[in-house]
Input
Amino acid sequence: MSIILTEKAELRLRTFLRGTGDRTTNKGIRLGVKDGGCNGYQYTLDITNKQKPDDIVEQLGKVRVYIDSQSAPLLNGVVVDYVDGLLESGFKFENPNATGSCGCGQSFQAGDCTPAAVPCS
Output
């Protein structure tokens, strides 16, 4: 399992986590895949102060990361970057393992194009 936070993303997340005022030792981010299919994946990045029972826990730099275990195969190899000026949160997800086609038409997938790996809609 590997997820990469760029230096800019790690700095932005650390700054944000410090600024929340909550000094909980388990405070970190939770990553998951919210949706997928022929339009590509929609990733989620949430601030949290505790892990769920089935989360995978990683420490990326100085940021604690909780990974939704069901999303883990689709997050493997994902690079999280921070880009000033992007709408919404400014975080950008790139999956270098993604390919350009799937049985449901044009899509982005990680690994084999199977119903378990790619939720085609």
Remarks:
- The first helix runs from residue 7 to 19.
